[in-house]
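Why do we care about 3D structure at all? Because function follows from shape, and shape follows, mostly, from sequence. That is the central idea of this module. The next example makes it concrete: a single protein chain, its amino acid sequence, and then its structure expressed as tokens.
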Amino acid sequence: RDCINKQTMSNLTAGRAWDKFLLPFYRQAAAAVRSEDAITPIFYTSPLGIPIDQADQVLLANDTQQGLAYHIYCPPGDTREDAALDLLCAAMLNTQVHTNVADRDQLSRDMAIFVTEFGAVDSSKSELKQ
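And the structure:
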């Protein structure tokens, strides 16, 4: 997925990576998994925090065992010695959260969202609570 997701700057064009590469790849891979295993959850991720642009897309119709995964590059409460970087990080986190919720809603209101790369957040109680 990362090779498709991050291989070229042209994939930053809204919808390009998702429509042309990721959606067809995910559908084929998921169909192959489902032909052998109907139970294990399958998680997908959208490209580089860019919103999925078509509201009518579903990955696998009538599949209750699929979800949208994402990870955060700027964990809540993470501070740097540079105030400008702190502001940029806070804006980026806010955008990522809203983008991933919107993606989930466009794909299916019943689709779960799941944070991956938990190592990006330290183990302090305040960060785990957020």
